[in-house]
Amino acid sequence: KGQLLWEFDVEADSLAPAIGKLVAKGDVIGYIQTYYGMEEVISPIDGRIAVAVCQQGDFVAKNEVVAMLLPEEK
Question: Dihedral angle at the C-alpha atoms of 7, 10, 12, 18, nearest 10 degrees?
Fold first, then answer.
């Protein structure tokens, strides 16, 4: 468990990925800051961001859904 970080931006607010953003399988879409370090949130499929369930800075648990993706139609 840890704190969700969608992005690192020192000049402006860090935001969740934009709805409709295209992501490829294996892309990093966010990070979870844990006691032991940063864990990457990896896209499991090629698709588009449908909804960011959690906000920047939310505390999340293992296996919690943080975003939903729609598969990219081929």
Answer: -10
What separation in angstroms does the CA of 13 have from each of 10, 21, 68? Answer: 8, 18, 22
The amino acid occupying position 31 is Y
Measure the CA–CA gap between 66 and 74, rounded to whole angstroms: 25
* 1-54: pLDDT as tens digits: 999 999 877 677 778 888 999 999 999 999 999 999 999 999 999 999 999 999
Phi-psi region of 68 (alpha: psi -120 to 50; beta: other; left: phi over 0): beta
- In Å, how far are 7, 10, 27 from 42, measured between CA atoms? 13, 23, 6
